[in-house]
User: Which sequence fits this backbone?
């Protein structure tokens, strides 16, 4: 948990000015990202341009700034958020020195939007607060990097994997099986974690890696990992398809790609039931390619027998439903709901544990 053994001087400054900064947080981050990417284009490799264009990245940072300000004297409330952030940063390969770049440009954006004197007490207080949070993240990420390296089959940085097999799972969806090129162990991972594909299929030298959920159970990953990826098609013929998803969907056996280690915090809480009672059930409610995380998480429930797994999945049709037959074969109760009127036409030969609905309203 995060803690503060003594109260630094900046804490009171942040508390006294949080009500001024919070309403301007989105303005600050909207200035910050273009400023940083202009001043330090080398960090663009960490940022998904789609998230930048949509405003998702600046909005997420603004929310983080506000949460930090509101909990500046109760950092324990931010433990989960910091853990999630640290996993994402490690998956991207962010290093301690990158925080200096963030700090410099963020403080310039704060001064610009709020009209602050960079040498005034308020600016200095926020500067110290940002550096303190950077220190928390740097320490958390140092531990995560070491932990990822220490796991069975673990490593730090890039590691080359060979495509062992590519399977067409559904319309525009493939599963890619990856084995370590060095012949050593596949990495240990926690169900729900993802690996990061560090490839640049675009002509842009500053292209962010992409994260893909490991879509198999750990017990099925002794020799190779599996990711299951949907081709992100452009909304119109004039808009290109997703660059990385197109790259993955064109991979062939024998191709070699670079990966970062598994990271991520997706999990399902579990508490042993009272004596004489069963563990109940876990319902996995998914849609589209979002089904991938549930495959590994449900495998934990199925193999341990601690709780019943129930699948409820929505999609356009059986043909577009990833991993449908694999999930049906678990014998777990399933409801597959398809929005197309004829969406269930191809859903044949499924076990009696599967209920299929077509023409469903998926809202």
Assistant:
């Amino acid at each position: 948990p995060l803690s503060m053994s003594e109260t630094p001087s900046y804490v009171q400054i942040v508390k006294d000015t949080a009500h001024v900064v919070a309403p301007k947080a989105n303005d600050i981050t909207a200035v910050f990202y273009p400023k940083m990417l202009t001043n330090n284009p080398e960090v663009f490799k960490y940022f998904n341009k789609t998230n930048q264009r949509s405003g998702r990245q600046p909005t997420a940072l603004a929310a983080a700034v506000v949460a930090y300000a509101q909990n500046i004297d109760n950092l324990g409330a931010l433990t989960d958020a910091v853990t999630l952030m640290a996993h994402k940063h490690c998956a991207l390969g962010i290093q301690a020195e990158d925080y200096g770049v963030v700090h410099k440009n963020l403080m310039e954006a704060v001064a610009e939007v709020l009209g602050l004197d960079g040498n005034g007490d308020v600016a200095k207080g926020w500067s110290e607060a940002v550096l303190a949070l950077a220190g928390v993240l740097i320490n958390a990420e140092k531990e995560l990097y070491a932990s990822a390296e220490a796991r069975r089959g673990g490593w730090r940085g890039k590691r080359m994997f060979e495509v062992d097999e590519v399977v067409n799972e559904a319309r525009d969806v493939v599963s890619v099986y990856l084995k370590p090129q060095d012949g050593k162990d596949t990495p240990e991972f926690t169900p729900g974690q993802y690996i990061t594909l560090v490839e640049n299929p675009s002509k842009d030298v500053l292209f962010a890696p992409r994260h893909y959920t490991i879509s198999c159970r750990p017990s099925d990953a002794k020799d190779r990992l599996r990711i299951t990826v949907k081709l992100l098609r452009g909304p119109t013929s004039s808009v290109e398809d997703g660059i990385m998803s197109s790259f993955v969907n064109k991979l062939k056996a024998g191709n070699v790609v670079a990966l970062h280690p598994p990271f991520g915090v997706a999990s399902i809480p579990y508490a042993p039931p009272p004596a004489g009672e069963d563990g109940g059930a876990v319902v996995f409610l998914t849609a589209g390619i979002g089904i991938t995380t549930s495959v590994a998480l449900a495998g934990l429930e199925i193999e341990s027998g601690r709780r019943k797994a129930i699948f409820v999945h929505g999609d356009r049709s059986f043909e577009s439903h990833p991993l449908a037959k694999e999930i049906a074969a678990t014998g777990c109760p399933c409801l597959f709901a398809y929005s197309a009127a004829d969406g269930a036409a191809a859903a044949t030969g499924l076990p009696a544990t599967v209920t299929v609905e077509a023409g469903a309203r998926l809202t």
In short: The domain at 9-150 is CATH 1.10.490.10 (Globin-like).
